[in-house]
What does this fold into?
Amino acid sequence: MNDLKAKVAYLQGLSSGLDLSPDSKEGKLFHGIIEVLDEFADSFGDLEEGQEQLEDYLETIDEDLYQLEDELYEDNGASQSAGNGNYIEVECPGCGETVYFDSSITNDKDVVEITCPNCDEVVFVNDEDYQVDEEPEMLEGQTNGKRLTASDEDI
It folds into this structure.
């Protein structure tokens, strides 16, 4: 972009060195052409800046998606090793997002809090003191990386 602006500035210098009268037809023509070229150079610079911002934004989204995929596949591998394939479905009271988690957490002796990945609100705690608005729904899930589906009884 700087190269384009430098070329336009060079043309402005050349036109002023021609000693053309600004009131003459040729002077008006050269002045008009150079003004248009200067505006094009400015517009081109704005487009380049916008393109760089979009590339940075896209790269950030790509990195976030990569991390999310790693977490998803890592969690999927952990549930495959659990082997039972039962999941609990809870709706987040904060944002309404449906959260699925392994049913074996309810049998854990330690207190475990399940938070919504969308808004970080606690949706389930395996402690008898924690009250849930609705009873969690048990689902039979497939642990081979496919989307969870409800069993025939739930349909």
Observations:
- The chain is about 50% helix and 15% strand.
- The first strand starts at residue 86 and ends at 91.
- Strands lie at 86-91, 98-102, 113-115, 122-125, 137-140.
- The mean pLDDT is 77.
